[in-house]
């Protein structure tokens, strides 16, 4: 499979299309926006960067209970324009119904939204016309598994120029609960703007880059009438909810309140406005595949004021809708620009091979 220019190399250093080996000509390095352009095919296709896929009889996406031989993936998903991801199945089912109303998508009489990946027992996926609403679980490993298979799904379905958006919750740093945060840059626990992975015994760093134009567009869609603030800033990703985020209320804690506060103040001084557990891998893998992506989260508390989420349930439920409002505005804007907003029609799932369809279900169930 031919690769376009600007591929990221797998080595020990922070590598990517923006890397310039001629250190004497730093002024020639492309800007981040040019980097984003270099990592995409000219026709908007999604990269796999894996020649092995073309040699396979079929590609089983067993965490999604789908397969390239068992399903007509282009018929099912070829019209997808937006992939929206969030932590829990319930949240993304709720978002699917919400976005269906927002874009005026109509289901045929007597039908209802179905969880396409129900047989995987891992992730939940709902398709609302050009919008996929998918749960990604919690933390880097869960998101990484899903992204590999979603990126392959986009490839098999021949989707052009999809936009991936993560809708989630987070802890604020000097930011009040209920604030909507659009991530500008993603950093790990060591404040590196990359995602680190051990591959075949070697450490690989992939740049965690999000689409700057998308960030600006989302920020522009925040309304002065919104009863909450919408900000942009740096987001830190951790592998843990407790010790990794400097909490004092986990099962283990070997640092003091003073240590915690000094660390959180350091993060604030660096420009970090929120902490979550998915941003680096989400940014890195979408960037590596040439997919425009953004992260919109709502803060559940200000970590400078405490560790535990204390807001009442009804308040929390309202807060969690706020990123959905912003994302829906962007989706409606893009669909209106494409002239699709009032011409949406549902497309039934298409099973290409019933026998292989059953085998894919069995394969997914076998990996519980």
From TrEMBL:
Q: What is its EC number?
A: 2.4.2.3
Spell out the CDD domains in the cross-references. UP_hUPP-like
Q: Keywords in alphabetical order, please.
A: Glycosyltransferase, Transferase
Question: Where is the stretch described as Disordered?
Answer: 1-40
GO cellular component entries: cytosol
Gene Ontology MF terms: uridine phosphorylase activity
Describe the reaction catalysed, as an equation: uridine + phosphate = alpha-D-ribose 1-phosphate + uracil
Q: Where is the Nucleoside phosphorylase domain?
A: 81-332
Source species, domain of life = Eukaryota
Biased-composition ranges for Basic and acidic residues?
Answer: 20-40
EC class of the enzyme, as a word: transferase
Annotated residues for binding of phosphate: 122, 166-169
Summary of the function given for this chain in its UniProt record: Catalyzes the reversible phosphorylytic cleavage of uridine to uracil and ribose-1-phosphate which can then be utilized as carbon and energy sources or in the rescue of pyrimidine bases for nucleotide synthesis. Shows broad substrate specificity and can also accept deoxyuridine and other analogous compounds.
Give the family per the record. Answer: Belongs to the PNP/UDP phosphorylase family.
Return the protein name. Uridine phosphorylase
Species per Swiss-Prot/TrEMBL record: Anopheles farauti
């Amino acid at each position: 499979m031919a690769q376009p220019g600007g591929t990221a190399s797998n080595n020990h250093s922070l590598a990517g299309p923006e890397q310039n080996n001629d250190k004497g000509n730093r002024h020639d390095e492309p800007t981040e926006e040019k980097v984003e352009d270099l990592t995409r095919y000219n026709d908007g296709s999604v990269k796999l960067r894996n020649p092995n896929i073309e040699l396979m009889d079929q590609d089983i996406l067993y965490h999604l209970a789908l397969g390239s031989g068992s399903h007509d993936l282009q018929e099912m998903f070829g019209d997808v324009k937006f992939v929206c991801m969030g932590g829990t199945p319930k949240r993304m089912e709720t978002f699917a119904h919400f976005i269906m109303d927002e874009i005026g998508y109509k289901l045929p009489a007597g039908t209802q939204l179905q969880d396409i990946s129900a047989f995987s027992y891992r992730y939940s996926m709902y398709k609302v016309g050009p919008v996929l609403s998918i749960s990604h679980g919690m933390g880097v490993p869960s998101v990484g598994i899903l992204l590999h298979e979603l990126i392959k799904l986009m490839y098999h379905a021949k989707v052009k120029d999809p936009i991936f958006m993560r809708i989630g919750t987070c802890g604020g740093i000097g930011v009040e609960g209920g604030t909507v945060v659009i991530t500008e840059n993603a950093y790990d626990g060591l404040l590196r703007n990359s995602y680190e992975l051990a591959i075949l015994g070697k450490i690989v760093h992939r740049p965690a880059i999000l689409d700057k134009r998308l960030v600006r567009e989302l920020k522009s869609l925040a309304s002065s009438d919104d009863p909450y603030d919408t900000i942009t800033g740096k987001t830190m990703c951790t592998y843990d909810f407790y010790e990794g985020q400097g909490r004092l209320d986990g099962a283990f804690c070997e640092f003091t309140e003073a240590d915690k506060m000094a660390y959180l103040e350091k993060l604030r001084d660096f420009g970090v406005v929120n902490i979550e557990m998915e941003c680096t891998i989400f940014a890195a893998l979408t960037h590596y595949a040439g997919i425009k992506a953004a992260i919109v989260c709502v803060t559940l508390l200000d970590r400078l004021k405490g560790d535990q989420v204390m807001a009442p349930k009804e308040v929390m439920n309202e807060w969690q809708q706020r990123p959905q409002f912003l994302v829906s505005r962007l989706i409606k804007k893009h669909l209106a620009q494409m002239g699709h907003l009032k011409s949406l029609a549902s497309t039934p799932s298409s099973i290409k091979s019933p026998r292989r369809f059953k085998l894919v279900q069995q394969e997914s169930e076998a990996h519980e």
